[in-house]
Specification:
alpha+beta, 9 helices, about 350 residues, elongated, monooxygenase activity, four-stranded antiparallel β-sheet, 2 domains, transmembrane helix, Rieske Iron-sulfur Protein, disulfide bond, about 35% helix
C-alpha cells in the first residue's frame, strides 16, 4: 500500500471524501446531521437578583409601594388644586409662558397620579412577578373544557406567582392608589357648574314686587289691563342690563290676562286675582318654551313648541298636549299707589316637571 493510500485512510470521513474528489477519486458529498431550521426552543431561564435575594425583593417591594403612595398624594394634590387656585389665576411657566394655574396643577397632579400607578405596576411585574417564559400551542377559537380548566389554572398560578397575597404592602398601596384616582373624576364634576341648590324652585318674585310691563318698562295698573288682552310682565328691579337677566327672566316671566270674574271656574284662581286679572307663569311645563298665544273666547293659551294647551279660566290646567301639570299662578294684589304687585313667589317651581320626580 502506498503512502498516499495510508494518508487517505487516516483522514476523517468528510475530509477523505473531499480529498478523493480533489484527486479525481469521485464527487464530494458533505453530510450534516443537524437541521438548520430546527426550533431552538426557549433560552435557559436566568434568575433575577430578586429571585435569589430576599433583601433585593424587599427593596423592589418598597419601591413599588412608594410609587403607589406618591400616586395617592398626587390625587390629593389634584383635589386640593380646586381649593387653592382660583379659576382666573394666571402664572408664568418657562418655556410655556402664561398659563392657568388651575389647569396646570390639575394636569400635572392627575398625570403624575396615573403615571405612578403604571410605573409601579411595570416595576412590580419586572422585578417580583414570575418572568419564566412559557410557550403554548395555538388552539381553536372555541375552547374545549380542558382548555378552559387550564386557563383557570394558569390564572390561579399567575395570581400566586404575583405574590399579591404575600406582598401585602404592595397590595394595600395599589388598592389605595386605584381607589383614590376615581376621586379626581368626582371632583371634575364641580366644573359642570355650581349646584343649583334651591335656585330652580325660587324666582325673583316676592311680596311687594311691582309688576313691570315688559313693553313700557312701567308699573302695571289694573286699568291698563283690558279683557282679552295678553300682557307680559317682569318683577321690579330686573333690568336687561343685569348680567343674569336671561337666567332670571327664564324663571320669572309672567303673563297677565283679564277674564270676567264670573267666568273663572277655579276658586283659588279667583282669590289670587284682582278684578279678574290673573297672573300665570309663561314658561310651559313641558320643556320650558315661552307661551305667547292666547285665545280670548276660550281663555286658552297655547305653547308654540309642542301645542300644550292650558285653560286660564280653570287654574291653567292642561287640556291638550304633553305638558305634565298646570302653569303656576302668581298671587297678585294692588298697593297703595294703585299698582299691581306680587303677594309672594310661586308656590311651585316653574317650567318642566323636574320637581315632581322627587
Amino acid at each position: 500500500m502506498s503512502s498516499q493510500e495510508n494518508s487517505e485512510e487516516n483522514l476523517p470521513a468528510e475530509q477523505g471524501t473531499a480529498h478523493a474528489a480533489a484527486h479525481g477519486g469521485g464527487t464530494a458529498v458533505v453530510q450534516h446531521d443537524e437541521d438548520p431550521f430546527a426550533d431552538p426552543g426557549l433560552p435557559a431561564h436566568k434568575p433575577r437578583i430578586q429571585d435569589i435575594d430576599e433583601r433585593a425583593a424587599k427593596r423592589s417591594e418598597r419601591s413599588v409601594a412608594l410609587m403607589f403612595t406618591l400616586s395617592m398624594l398626587a390625587t390629593i394634590g389634584f383635589i386640593a388644586s380646586f381649593v387653592i387656585f382660583p379659576i382666573d389665576k394666571i402664572v408664568y411657566v418657562w418655556p410655556i409662558g402664561h398659563v392657568s394655574a388651575l389647569n396646570l396643577s390639575l394636569g400635572l397632579t392627575l398625570g403624575l397620579a396615573l403615571f405612578l400607578i403604571g410605573a409601579g405596576a411595570v416595576h412590580w411585574a419586572r422585578t417580583l412577578m414570575s418572568d419564566v417564559e412559557v410557550a403554548d400551542d395555538r388552539h381553536p377559537i372555541e375552547a374545549a373544557p380542558e382548555v378552559k380548566a387550564k386557563v383557570l389554572a394558569d390564572f390561579a398560578d399567575g395570581a400566586r406567582e404575583s405574590a399579591i397575597g404575600r406582598r401585602k404592602l404592595i397590595r394595600n398601596t395599589m388598592f389605595g392608589a386605584l381607589a383614590m384616582v376615581p376621586l379626581s373624576g368626582v371632583v371634575l364634576l364641580r366644573e359642570l357648574g355650581p349646584l343649583p341648590e334651591d335656585k330652580l324652585r325660587k324666582t325673583l318674585w316676592a311680596k311687594g314686587k311691582l309688576l313691570i310691563n315688559m313693553n313700557t318698562n312701567e308699573p302695571l295698573r289694573p286699568e291698563d289691563v283690558v279683557v282679552g288682552s295678553l300682557t307680559f310682565v317682569k318683577p321690579e328691579g330686573l333690568e336687561e342690563s343685569n348680567h343674569d337677566f336671561n337666567n332670571e327672566i327664564a324663571k320669572a316671566a309672567v303673563m297677565i290676562v283679564r277674564i270676567q270674574p264670573e267666568e273663572i271656574k277655579d276658586k283659588r284662581e279667583l282669590e289670587w286675582s284682582v278684578d279678574g286679572i290673573v297672573a300665570y307663569s309663561k314658561i310651559c311645563t313641558h320643556v320650558g318654551c315661552p307661551i305667547s298665544l292666547y285665545e280670548q273666547q276660550t281663555h286658552h293659551v297655547l305653547c308654540p313648541c309642542h301645542q300644550s294647551t292650558f285653560d286660564l279660566s280653570d287654574g291653567a290646567r292642561v287640556i291638550f298636549g304633553p305638558a305634565g301639570h298646570p302653569l303656576p299662578q302668581l298671587r297678585i294684589g294692588v298697593n297703595a299707589e294703585g299698582n299691581l304687585e306680587a303677594l309672594g313667589d310661586f308656590e311651585e317651581p316653574v317650567g318642566p316637571a323636574f320637581w315632581e320626580r322627587g
